[in-house]
Amino acid sequence: MKHNWKLNVSTMKYLNPPDSFLQDELEVEILDDGGLQLVELSPDDPWLADPREPEELQEGEVKVTYITHACMELQFGETRFMFDPWLKGPAFARGWWLLHEPPADAMDRLCSADLIYISHMHSDHLSYPTLKDLAKRRPDVPIYVGDTSRPVFWYLEQSQVPLTNINVVPFGVWQNVNEHLRFMILMDGVHPELDTCLIVEYKGHMILNTVDCTRPNKGKLPNNVDLMMSDFAGGASGFPMTFFGGKYTDSWKETFIKNERVKLLNYKSALVKSLEPKIYCPFAGYFVEAHPSDRTIRETNIKNSAENLNALINKVAPDIKTWTPKPGSVLDLGLALRDPTNRAAITDPPANAQIYKDKWDFDLYLNELNGAIGSEIFKHKSWIQFYYSWAGFKNYNLVMRVIETKDNFEPHAGGYDYLVDFLDLSFPTARPGREHFYIEIKNRISVMRSAVLHGRLWDDLYIGFQNHISRDPDIYHHKFWNHFQTELPVSAPDWDEFLQQAEMGSSCELM
């Protein structure tokens, strides 16, 4: 049973925990002996529409170049297709930084791309610092995203990045680029509001990129693709690293993280083995908590290595060729398919190429975040009520305490410390006497205020390791986190209106 889900067989309705993910729909079959059998419904195989026979690929016709993290450049003849370009700056406010140094010509490659796919809105895939530079040179480059319920580019207008050719395409439909090249975007079965994955086909040869999907296309994927790419690293969540109190000791976290790494390796290797791609490449996991204030996170939040995953795949599925990429390394798909043992199929970067980053522009990006601290709105305590009213989360028996802190998570001298009762969206000075769920969140003041000021999602805080969390009882509140991570209003709070109201209130007090 997943997540303690239960099924009432008399009504065939799930008895969901009130605060959990939705389950996959099950179909009931009556057996010959009168018993019941529950069958998981199989999603469609849309890639089978208009099948094409594979044609032989010439040397150099299809090249796959690893850039950094989840960014790949695919060259099909004269057409260049780029995935998830994060080439500069941090992701999740200031929590994630690139581990791999992109090739020196990475931005030139991006600006010369014929089309770009961005899998989802997380900032290690949709990088506004990167896209800002792209827009200066190619504002009209075609960018393709899936039709998720939360638009991938929901923040575009506020970002002031002038991209003009963003294309939202339906799931499971071939998009023709030219007579030989087409692609199809699929949704994730666990996070359909957020994640997508991709199939690219060229002359009948398929490349599958599952990106960060937890259960891509509800688990139904094409077998025997020519190249499969997926994430591998783990460590991409605030849990358990940002949790404190009770069982969340350093030793418990280390043990939990180690066990999760093993489970993820086994899951990924089993998935690859079951799908039997001809070639497999782990990517989308090359990030580091580089800022000095996050040293403890970096030292504890150990991630899987691509080498270890590929070694496991080589053991359980020796017929699958694996590729551990370095920035600038190139896979010649035609050569690799013709002879998987041909060393010329993979070109490594020059011997003097820098593989790992050793410096980041911390000050540039942290100064931008710090600029939010002194915003005029925070001079008025009523911003708290205005913000959470805008956020729109209520009718849930959860009381939250928020403490604005310094980098070390000690209270900030000029910060706020307040309670929000989400049952009636009130702001008490003490916890209510009734039974209620309780969560205490210590947020770094610059990241919290930047999120408030610009109406950003709380992924910057949670996935970016920018808070410390304790809860009583120790229960995950999916409804709460899902709202603040994916369902906040698309339009930012109207702080001009707020300041007018605040000034009017101050004037009335003086009269």
From TrEMBL:
One GO term (biological process): CMP-N-acetylneuraminate metabolic process
One function term, GO molecular function aspect: CMP-N-acetylneuraminate monooxygenase activity
Domain of life, source organism: Eukaryota
InterPro entries for this protein: Cnh, RibonucZ/Hydroxyglut_hydro
GO CC, alphabetical: cytoplasm
Family (UniProt): Belongs to the CMP-Neu5Ac hydroxylase family.
PANTHER family: CYTIDINE MONOPHOSPHATE-N-ACETYLNEURAMINIC ACID HYDROXYLASE, INACTIVE CYTIDINE MONOPHOSPHATE-N-ACETYLNEURAMINIC ACID HYDROXYLASE
Protein known as: Cytidine monophosphate-N-acetylneuraminic acid hydroxylase-like
Annotated source species: Gymnodraco acuticeps (Antarctic dragonfish)
